[in-house]
Amino acid sequence: MAITAVLGAQWGDEGKGKIVDYLATDSDMVIRFQGGDNAGHTVINEYGEFRLHLIPSGIFNPDTSCLIGTGVVVNPISLVNEMNSLAGAHVGLDRLMVADRAHLVMPYHVALDRAEESFRKSKIGTTMRGIGPAYADKVGRFGIQVFDSLDQDYFAERVRVNVERVNLILSELYGAEALSADDVLDQVWPALKAVRPHVVDCYAEVRKAMGRGDRILLEGQLGAMRDLDWGAYPYVTSSNPIAGGASVGAGIPPALITRVVGVVKAYSTCVGEGPMPTELNDEMGERLRRVGGEYGATTGRPRRCGWFDAVAVRYSSGLSGFTDIAVTKLDVMGGIERLKMATAYRVNTRDGEVIRDTPPPPALMGHVTPIYEEHEGWCSDISNVRSSADLPAPAMAYLRRIEELCGARIGLVSVGPRREQTFSAH
Ligand code: GDP
Ligand code: IMO
Ligand code: MG
Predict the structure, then answer these.
(1) What is the spatial distance between Cα 236 and Cα 184, in angstroms, rounded to a whole number?
(2) What CA–CA distance (Å, rounded) separates 142 from 164?
(3) Which of 247, 284, 375, 390 is the most buried (most CB within 10 A)?
(4) What is the pLDDT of residues 10-21, one digit of tens each?
(5) Residue pair 222/7 in contact by the 8 Å Cβ criterion
(6) Angle CA(38)–CA(42)–CA(46) in degrees, nearest 5?
(7) How many CB atoms lie within 10 A of CB 224?
(8) Contact between 27 and 240 (Cβ < 8 Å)
(9) Peptide bond preceding 275: is omega within 30 degrees of 0, i.e. cis?
């Protein structure tokens, strides 16, 4: 039995979907362990091009079962849309499972997300998928679990009580339009019925898989810099994308997760608000966005782009204990004469104190200046390279420096969005 977590090491969109799709060909089960349909995991393979929001990126491998784990918040409408689009592309869904203890994202969570975001003076720039409000209900013990939808009357009663409460918040606090419980039920019930055949007991399924000695992948959403506890709060999501979150969300004892792969983009991107020390608001930032196709897979928003930030990745590695990293989008760096990497931050408000290992507390994170080192670039197109021996020497040197600065060995290198554009670094 081998259990591997695949985690975002930056601000999300590192290429987790692509790496999970690649690793799933050697896995028996993939479990998404946190987040919801705020995720946009792009997979390009022989079935076509997909942006997965809830369904684990292992779904294309016919021998791999895919479990939406207990730690995920599930919007049933969005899940059914995704199931339909996969079925339309002839991707089998009989191996798809949804944890009965996962919480539901309801239309009123989406309405609350919208109202809360417009109320905030300092915006977070959420994906508006109702993720924060759904996790808030879970923590506040108002949430509805997938299991609760198996009995229609009980479910309808829970929805009515919740809508009554949410309506007070929406109308009295935010001056927003109240919702009708009947409308909410009409919207979600057909979707819940379609999801029902996939509902399982997550604990039992995972135990069965472990008993068989299955190879299990734990697929993270977003990245450590947006972790609820360790990111630049409040510019975070409402769950834990780090390795500890994988254990909780999938119901797997921490000591059994023996491999932790950090997915690391060769530069930095971020969608939404909040500090991003290496952001480039210039032609170079524009170039990275254009060549890297950096537009949100869920919202279509242009991603903020910048140089590689070793402080952030070293911190992520410290939080999750990366046993190895997968460096993606190295091809995008081709053709840039001089490449920069941030190795430390100078904290402007603390007499220029230099920080190397730990991003400062969130309130200070917006007041740092990155300290860069420069590297020689390469001009050849590396998207057809399939072995590290064929990489231009400066590209290899760039990878080795990432390895050194982040204190984690590079396992995989990705030089294009397609599954086959991936190779081992050693
Ligand atoms: P995720 O959320 O971490 O799964 O990442 P996204 O799918 O949101 O964003 C990654 C984007 O980069 C997608 O458009 C991928 O198709 C693309 N991608 C992944 N790996 C590579 C790579 O090595 N090179 C290039 N050029 N694109 C890549
Ligand atoms: P994947 O899994 C990039 C960002 C939002 C916002 C913050 C909180 O594809 O990497 P939320 O809707 O979660 O309350 O928004 O987090 N965000 C993402 N950014 N990729 C994602 O997912 C994201 N999911 C949320 O932009 O700043
Ligand atoms: Mg994404």
Answers:
(1) 28
(2) 12
(3) 247
(4) 999 999 999 999
(5) no
(6) 145
(7) 28
(8) no
(9) no
pLDDT at 82: 98
**Which residues place a Cβ less than 5 A from the ion ligand 3?**
13, 40, 297
Residues with catalytic function: 13, 41
The answer on pLDDT for 172 being more than 90 is yes
Helix 152-168 × helix 107-119 angle, to 10°: 20
Pocket test for ligand 1, best of 328, 333, 418, 422 (most atoms within 8 A of CB): 328
Task: Encode pLDDT of 288-344 as tens digits.
Answer: 999 999 998 778 889 999 999 999 999 999 999 999 999 999 999 999 999 999 999
pLDDT, residue 363, reads 85
Percent of the chain past pLDDT 70, that is, above it, reads 100
On the 0-12 / 13-18 / 19+ scale of CB atoms within 10 A, 371 is middle
Q: What pLDDT score was predicted for residue 360?
A: 87
Give the start-end residues of each E strand in 224-367.
259-265, 268-270, 304-306, 308-309, 324-328, 338-347, 353-355
Check residue 358 and give its pLDDT.
Answer: 85
Tokens of 100: 């009965």
Atom of ligand 1 nearest to the CA of 298: 8
CA of 189 to the centre of ligand 2 (A): 27
Q: Does residue 216 carry a pLDDT above 80?
A: yes
Q: H-type helices in 2-130, by residue range? A: 16-24, 76-88, 107-119
pTM above the 0.90 mark?
yes
How far apart CA 353 and CA 318 sit, in angstroms, is 21
259 vs 217: CA distance, rounded Å: 9
**Alpha-carbon gap, residue 7 to 219, rounded angstroms:** 7
Q: Which residue puts its alpha carbon closest to atom 20 of ligand 2? A: 12
- Token couple for 413: 């290198």
